[in-house]
Design a protein that fits this description.
By secondary structure, this protein is an alpha+beta fold. It has helices spanning about 1-15, 115-125, and strands spanning about 20-25, 35-45, 45-55, 60-65, 75, 85-90, 95-100, 105. The strands form two sheets. A four-stranded mixed β-sheet has the order 1-2-3-4, with no helix packed on it. Strands 5-6-7-8 form a four-stranded antiparallel β-sheet, with no helix packed on it. The chain starts with a helix and ends with a helix. About 20% of the residues are buried.
Amino acid sequence: MANFLRDLICTLRSAARPRFRIVEIEDDFPEVLEKKALYVLSEGGDTWAAAMVCPCGCQATLHLNLFADQRPCWRLNLESGGSLTPSVWRREHCGAHFWFRGGRVYWTSDQPYALLRDLRLLWGH
């Protein structure tokens, strides 16, 4: 019975985990970012910054540096729907901590109410 419940929860979480659109732009980030979108800023084929609305629901804009010589920095892989390394962790404010893999948010184990956060993302609240 325990395995059945664990499998059911995994299935529900996979279904509730929405995919983010990857929006590649060359000028500047728009004033208002869409939810469930990762904006990637590039120039001359080189990506140098990314931004997204925090997936926790706090509405904050997360700006992610992609320059390896500046800290903090992330690596972006646009194949397979987009992935960021390392995890994104807002140590202040909302405390959101997640992996962005294959264009989806995967909450880390230290995040409470991960399923509820996934459902909030799915429904857009």
